[in-house]
Design goal:
three-stranded parallel beta sheet; 9 helices; alpha/beta; 7 strands; globular; 199 residues
Length: 199
């Protein structure tokens, strides 16, 4: 996402299926199909609820109205939003609450069936009820998708993740099963962070 920004420096590698996504031969369009993104601040398009979810599907060749209708319903159901919006699919997505907008962004991300979903602080701007709904949704979605979440909320990480990586100032300090990281971390810096001694 940063390739075209002047002065950006990328070090190291990021591999999916053994292939570095920064390799010059990587098809960026194909990569974006394989990896869905949900940002910290919900970012619905200034379009209808229906068109928000249809956008990526159309980019990937889905044109039939009946096929779009089915996939949009599946995606909204998958994001636990269908029952709340099924009677107003052609209303503006900007009229949804913050929590609904974030679940719409999740529906948009899962519509094209990516292998991986990246979530950057997906509940940090939400109230506790909306946060609980997003966390319940993550627990359901992880049955079908690999989900990578960036969060500073230790309780959230403990609730929704199977594995946890602790980074400090850009350095990977420790990685392991979430229960081990939170109950018996191998590194003192990890223990200090998860117990609230710093951070």
């Amino acid at each position: 996402m940063n390739d075209l920004i002047d002065g950006v420096r990328i070090e190291g590698s990021c591999k999916i299926g053994g292939h570095d996504i920064y390799d010059a031969n990587v098809d960026v369009i194909e990569l974006r199909k394989r990896v869905g993104m949900v940002f910290q601040k919900s970012n619905p398009f200034p379009k209808s609820i229906y068109e928000n979810v249809a956008y990526g599907l159309r980019l990937h060749g889905k044109q039939s109205k009946s096929e779009l209708d089915d996939l949009i319903e599946q995606s909204l159901r998958g994001a636990a939003l269908w029952d709340e919006v099924k009677d107003r699919l052609h209303s503006s997505a900007l009229g949804l609450s913050g929590g609904q907008q974030q679940r719409l962004c999740i529906a948009r991300a899962i519509a094209i069936k990516p292998e991986i979903i990246l979530m950057d602080e997906p509940a940090s701007a939400l109230d506790p009820l909306a946060t609980a709904r997003v966390e319940d949704l993550i627990l359901e979605l992880k049955k079908n998708f690999t989900i990578v979440i960036v969060t500073h909320n230790m309780q959230q990480a403990a609730r929704v993740s199977d594995f946890t990586a602790f980074f400090y100032l850009g350095e990977l300090i420790e990685f392991g099963a979430t229960t081990k990281i939170f109950t018996s971390p191998a590194q003192k810096r990890t223990e200090d962070y998860v117990t609230g001694r710093f951070g």
